[in-house]
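Late entry, nicotinamide-adenine-dinucleotide complex.
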Amino acid sequence: MHLVIVGLGLIGASFAAAVKKAGFGGSITAVVRSQSSGVTAVERALVDHYSLDIRDAVKTADMVMLAVPMLAMRGQLTDMAPTLPTHTIVTDVGSVKSYFAEQALAALTHPERIVPAHPIAGRERSGMDAADETLFEKRRVIVTPLPETAAANLDAVSALWAMTGAVLETLDVEHHDRVLAHTSHVPHVLAFALVDALVKQPEAEEIFRYTAGGFRDFSRLAASDPVMWSDICRTNPEAILKSLDQFDLHLQHIRSAIEIGDGDTLERTFERARVARSQYNDVQS
Ligand code: NAD
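Prediction complete; structure with ligand written out below:
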């Protein structure tokens, strides 16, 4: 099996490291943007080869995995299309599945080879230096096969993810994007918004000097990569806006309760959230 990983950042490099650690018998080529990162990746034995030329790299690929920011996917798909063998499986790790599916269907022939996937694992650091061979262990990976996806291709992608120690689940593309808007995309937008709003306060320096506990937990997401999150907002706008509108209504409700001193409503709301949060903790553990 010749696996080509396009984009050797946090997710691409962690995936390469994880399958190698698990004894992957094939060879891995990384498509990178600079010679120096290619040389480093081979020196660290993350991959066997590197290439600066996607058209050349995919010529002998059995599977191509796109691990670039969402808005870079389209260019990579159109660039590789002319030299991609017709049997080659094309998968990705992007956070928005409908956008990848649309771009892949538009750029590629043989839709049975398209296998979108999304690991629900990550961290605020990005780039190859943040790679971690244990990143996906016991974490969920959602595969979102298209109606056209061939079962054998879905199995091949799932088998590689299973090697990383991940737990696989299947959702359809739109369902994935709706759920992830609520659980990941909107929380990141809120964290960025909160920290940005505080930065603009006249006493910002003081605010950040006294950060602890709650603020630190909540604002952690705002340390994430701005390009990656801007791309996610631009490729999943409908679901994110719907979720933001629902949240906005709820926030207004809480705001009114604070304004009129309605302790019952506040307590009921916070208690509901507390119970839900501890049940969710039980599900996770
Ligand atoms: P990263 O920034 O660590 O790596 C991205 C890689 O893509 C880098 O190697 C970079 O050189 C390359 N790249 C960037 N722009 C490019 C362009 N225009 N053309 C070609 N290559 C380009 O990012 P990451 O965290 O590994 O994220 C990669 C993908 O995985 C994204 O689509 C993201 O939505 C998804 N994802 C990220 C996380 C996370 O928590 N970081 C989790 C799950 C999925």
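The first helix runs from residue 10 to 21. Will revisit in the morning.
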